[in-house]
Amino acid sequence: MRRWFRRWFTPARSPVLPSLQAYQQWASAYPPHAHNALMQAEERAMRSLLPTLSGSTILDLACGTGRYALIARQLGAGRVIALDNSEAMLRVSSLIGAACATTEAIPLASQSVDGIICGLALGHLPRLEPTFQEMGRVLKPGGWLLLSDVHPFIFLNGAQRTFQAADGRTYAVEHYPHLIADYHTAGQAVGLSLEALAEPGLQAGVVAPVTSTVPVALVLRWRKNE
Ligand SMILES: C[S@@+](CC[C@H](N)C(=O)[O-])C[C@H]1O[C@@H](n2cnc3c(N)ncnc32)[C@H](O)[C@@H]1O
Fold first, then answer.
1. Ligand 1 site, residue 58, Cβ cutoff 6 A
2. Which residues face 139 on adjacent strands?
3. In terms of CB atoms within 10 Å, which end of the chain has fewer, N or C?
4. Torsion region of 100: left, alpha or beta (phi above 0 gives left; psi -120 to 50 gives alpha)
5. Phi, psi angles (nearest 5°) of residue 123
6. Best mutation site among 85, 138, 151 for ligand 1 pocket (most ligand atoms within 8 Å of CB)
7. How far apart, in whole angstroms, are the C-alpha atoms of residue 199 and residue 149?
């Protein structure tokens, strides 16, 4: 069994760090590509639901070290804006012009972006509403939001979202499981209509404590009402 999976799924409790403190320690070992089997499953589903990007203005919100901003550029987006609240993650990224900002106060004009990609971040926030308010505000009418989270089943079954820090110790990052209904309600309140949904499991053959039929990620796409 892979080490990261053993860490995530063992019932042993690791000390929980607030997101900012956790990514400060995790950043140097966080490459801008899917670096474990859960991220690979999540990214496959994200790519399958990604609208055409050519010429569009795309916001990679909570971009981390830039995984989805880089993908958006490769796929022909006209302009890519990348924001994250961790200076440490932004320093590791190779993105030019990425800026430090929280999802709850996006420093962009209203109705200024065609699409938002937000990967594996909102589980760190106890409340979805302030971020959805902001995402709904900056999207153009007809624009889309593609978002992923670690599947709530994983956490409701007692797992933690852990990493190994440079000091060799294992820590968990604060995480709040959000149900599909929570996401649906948060989107509806700001004029976003849910139009596609995927709950991918791990690829068959990955050695892990869950089979490929158990969803490990949640991927949702909304459209802003015209
Ligand atoms: C698991 S990483 C995912 C990074 C990237 N989106 C990806 O999919 O590879 C979660 C990211 O969310 C960021 N984050 C957490 N809370 C945030 C907030 N309130 N505002 C902005 N970024 C936040 C963290 O700093 C971290 O970079």
1. no
2. 113
3. C
4. beta
5. -65, -20
6. 85
7. 10
Instruction: Determine the distance separating the centroid of ligand 1 and the alpha carbon of 54, expressed in angstroms.
Output: 25
**Which pLDDT tens digits describe the chain residue by residue (226 residues)?**
456 665 555 555 789 999 999 999 999 999 999 999 999 999 999 999 999 999 999 999 999 999 999 999 999 999 999 999 999 999 999 888 899 999 999 999 999 999 999 999 999 999 999 999 999 999 999 999 999 999 999 888 778 888 989 888 999 999 999 999 999 999 999 999 999 999 999 987 776 666 777 899 999 999 999 9
Residue with tokens 């958006």: 72
CA-atom Rg of the chain in angstroms: 17
CATH number at residue 14: 3.40.50.150
Atom of ligand 1 nearest to the CA of 89: 27
Number of domains in the chain: 1
Q: 84, 104, 151: which to mutate for ligand 1, most atoms within 8 A of CB?
A: 84
- For residue 188, give its domain range: 3-224
175 ligand 1 Cβ < 6 A: no
